[in-house]
Design goal:
Blueprint (H helix, E strand, L loop, with lengths): L1 H16 L6 H21 L9 H12 L3 H28 L7 H18 L6 H18 L2 E2 L2 E2 L6 H17 L2 H31 L8 H18 L12
Antiparallel strand pairs: 1-2
């Protein structure tokens, strides 16, 4: 009985230690959505990835090197959209606290659901740039907002750092015979698998539903939204001013 009480107390302490928006499974669902976005834009929206901007900067450098000024000017558009996503998420996150209703993290999920819903209605014949820039914008906000999973640094829209961390903790785990490091490696492997699952699902769905396949990513977003809303209105109502770790 004492053991049960002690375990319950530990769970409550852990619940208070991390906000709802920092739970590992919340970030896992958002990582799934990140993979889904990548599969969507590559499969049916121009054969590009919009979750990050490294490729666009490389293409920009190449365009300038070739003196292709039209291409260079166009590439400034998605780069600017990504920049504005970070600016908006930083600005609105501070402003929304004044209302003491819900957290910015929750409001962002509402925005993403709305954007996804609208993108699904855009005809497949419409210019790909509309969807690409919209994904640039919301991916930037998601990346900037959800930064840690149970205290572990995370990126939910791309995988480069996850793969690096797998290598780092694999090496540490073997070198020091550390179970903790190997567990951390397993965490990042799991997130990589979730990202891949999102991209795979998106590719299959878009094959059958084309642009409207993006609507299926609203399922994980709705799960996240319900959980975060419940936390904001009930369990964490007294913590709306608390800043998530990593910010």
């Amino acid at each position: 009985m004492h053991h049960v009480i002690e375990k319950s107390s530990q769970n409550q302490n852990r619940s208070r230690e991390f906000l709802a928006c920092e739970r590992w499974w919340i970030l896992a669902l958002l990582t799934y959505a990140g993979g889904f976005f990548g599969g969507y834009t590559y499969s049916v929206r121009g054969g590009v990835f919009c979750n990050a901007q490294t490729a666009n900067f490389v293409l920009l450098a190449m365009a300038i090197g070739k003196q292709d000024w039209a291409e260079a000017k166009y590439l400034c558009i998605p780069i600017t959209a990504y920049f504005l996503g970070a600016v908006v998420s930083e600005t609105v996150a501070d402003s929304i606290k004044k209302f003491h209703l819900i957290r910015w993290d929750t409001f962002l999920i509402l925005i993403e659901i709305l954007v996804v819903f609208i993108l699904g209605w855009i005809p497949d014949s419409a210019p790909f740039q509309i969807s690409q820039i919209a994904i640039n914008f919301i991916a930037s906000m998601q990346y900037n907002t959800f930064r840690q999973a149970d205290g572990i640094p995370m990126a939910t829209t791309f995988c480069t750092n996850h793969l690096r961390q797998v290598g780092v903790f694999f090496t540490k785990g073997i070198r020091h015979r550390s179970i903790a490091d190997l567990k951390r490696m397993g965490f990042y492997i799991a997130m990589l698998a979730v990202f891949v699952a999102g991209g795979m699902t998106s590719t299959i769905l878009c094959r059958y539903f084309a642009g409207r396949g993006i609507w299926f990513v609203m399922i994980p977003f709705l799960i996240v939204l319900v959980y975060l809303l419940y936390a904001d209105l009930k369990t964490e109502k007294d913590q709306l001013d608390r800043i998530p770790r990593g910010h």
